[in-house]
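Q: Now give one record:
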Amino acid sequence: MKLIRQGDLMFVPVASIPEDRKKRESGIIMEGEVTGHHHRIADADAAEVFESGWRNDVFVQVGEKGVSIIHEEHKPVVLPAGTFQVHRAREFDYPAAVTRPVAD
């Protein structure tokens, strides 16, 4: 399976979700701090969003028909059936010598 990207998020296929997971009932994958826009699943019956661990890692478990991921500023992307860990793009601030998440 290939990696799928939407804006500052990358969906990476994984074998499973950690057992300490908590379901996000809202279906929101990631909230934009700057714009207030959200990356979210289009159909709550087609996929579930979970967080896990002390870093609140995000996972999307997609049913057999796949699901669209929507965001106000990006074209929808379709995730096929499977389980994905969500990674957020990071940028390096050379003057400050630190990395930080990309602000969406």
